[in-house]
Design brief:
By secondary structure, this protein is α/β, with parallel strands linked by helices. A 6-stranded mixed β-sheet has the order 6-9-10-3-11-12, sandwiched between helices. It has a 6-stranded mixed β-sheet with strand order 18-21-22-15-23-24, sandwiched between helices. It has a 4-stranded antiparallel β-sheet with strand order 2-1-4-5, with helices on one face. It contains 18 helices and 24 strands.
Amino acid sequence: MKLEVLGMANDVILDIQNVTKQFPGVTALDDVSIKIKRGEIHGICGENGAGKSTLMLILKGVHPYGTYEGKILYEGEELILEAGGIRQASKKGIAIVFQELTLIPDMSVGENVFLGREPVKRTGINWNKLYSDTQAILNKYDLDIDASETVRNLGVGKMQLTEIAKALSEDAKILILDEPTSALSEDEIDRLMEILEGLKRHGVTCIYITHKLPELFRITDTVTVLRDGKVVTTQSTENLNEAQLIKYMVGREIKERFPRGQNNPGEVLLSVNGLHAVDPNQSNKEVLKGVDFNVRRGEIFGIAGLMGSGRTELVTTLFGEYGKITEGTIKLDGHEINVKNSHQAMMKGISLVPEDRKRFGLVLIQSIQKNISLANLDQFSTSFRINFNAENKACDYYSKKLSIKAPNLEMLCEKLSGGNQQKVVISKWLMSNPKILIMDDPTRGIDIGAKFEIYKLMNQLSEEGISIVMISSDLEEIIGMCDRIMVMCEGQSVGILEQDEFDREKIMAMATGLTKKNHFLAKENIL
């Protein structure tokens, strides 16, 4: 049941009227009109490229007044933001928390919150006031963070809360959150939801952008759906269901979110036994403390666990790019392997689609073609020269195979939607002809339609005999797509579930260590 804002009329704080925004050759927003009420949590959803980000950037002043048609009324007056008007928007009370965090890791929470607006005294910055004011904000909104803590030492969840505190420090009346839970654990998501309800009680209006449909039904009062730059519908959340929302978003009915393939897993291809590894920069920090599993040929093998459970550390170690192995064995096709770097992994037939595609998967200022071929140039090189015709032909093949939506292969990756960027990363590693394709949160930050396409691709690849190792923070996704699931907790594998054992509560109990704890308690009682 949604909370009401005590003592506050449900009037319109933001009235977007007939806004159209065009870029060369593209209409990003087409006659968009939305009314957002004071003190509500208003969800905005749609596929990548629907116009959500463009609209938010107009509200923040990145696309200033005069570069779009229509008008926006904020508290009854027309919102006029000049070029470079981000600070102007903040002063008016419009704040945005972007999906990509903008914090400076080596500064404290307080320094980040008041960066560029530090309180001063005659001799310089008034550090006492900076930290006391920051702590007052944190306490007011029940954000469990120490103002003096260095940001680098915080978990991702608390970094996200620091971003929110930074926005609220300017007395935000409207808080825009763009995919705020994309890197959060289940517990951190629960905490964020509590905080948003608290902000609502304080009269803060939230605009909540997400691809995660359960979150929309959990936290929002109203939902607006954008498709191809147009408003499809604005409705009270309680009047919608998930099937209706998906149909509004993609323009067609998707009968099953997680399509099942016809794969028939074969013999064991990858076997990991008793794997221990330490952080390469801190030899006394053990990140893997005993991992055992095997992956069969043509299988979709899931790895579940909370943030910090060792999932990403495991797959990057298998790929030769992270942990220093101290104990255990890795066997591929029955032969023990010792992979020292990503090139060796690729030569053995192991490829990795990384968790953060922008940092580790793409060169954003390069073209689609150069990104796809980047890890595979030896396939096209002869006598220190690149056969550009062969490169273009191969890249074109994978671009069509994965249905990358772009006018040509010369388009820069930074111009692509999140879903198409992810397809470029997958194309790059498919070109290396992997036996095992590791996919770390492959649908993070992409829309429902693009997710469905990637699910179908995963099924197709497994049917072709490629083994897929899939990490996901979305339990519904990992249950819906995988043949078996290994659960990790504190650097260890704590169990492997077959399909008939899949259960959210069981997975969470294993991921939190509850199952292991109960096992030890039972053992003590027996003794």
